[in-house]
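Run log, item B.
One chain of 157 residues. Sequence copied directly from the ordering sheet:
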Amino acid sequence: MPEAYPFTLPSFLKSGKSRSQPAKFSQADPRRGPGYKQGTGTDVPVFWDLTFLFKPDEAIAFQLWGTQKLNNWMDDFVMPIRTEFGLLDHVCSFLPDTLLPVNEDGPLFRYTAKIMARAQIIPDAFKDAADLIIGLPNWRLWADYLDVTVNQAMPEA
């Protein structure tokens, strides 16, 4: 099991977080006729650009975690990351040459990093309810009513 991000350290800054992901398809543009799309696979990594802001003692702990526990930043680690589906644990790794202390903000240390997760995580509960979520306007408002109806009013069905 990969090393967990230390719970004693603050997480990355929300204001410095962005996500990118390559497409799961490519498009061919033939010399004649319309272009066509072709799937390139389902295992597509997700990349996050992050900013960490640490007090001096936290910066020391962060550096020791990366160098001692992650084998000089090379090993995978588990980090909770908030997505559209809530706070989910992702198996991540730092990309080479992206973890840099950018500057010292007074007594604070600011790091930027690019991490890669193996895939975008979509919880099974969301996958199972995809048709309802897509088809219902304001589906979150309906979720409580549907839960009571399905689990209490019609439990035998």
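Observations after the first pass:
- The longest strand covers residues 108-117.
- The beta strands are 3-4, 18-20, 25-28, 36-39, 46-54, 77-83, 86-94, 100-105, 108-117.
Flagged for discussion on Thursday.
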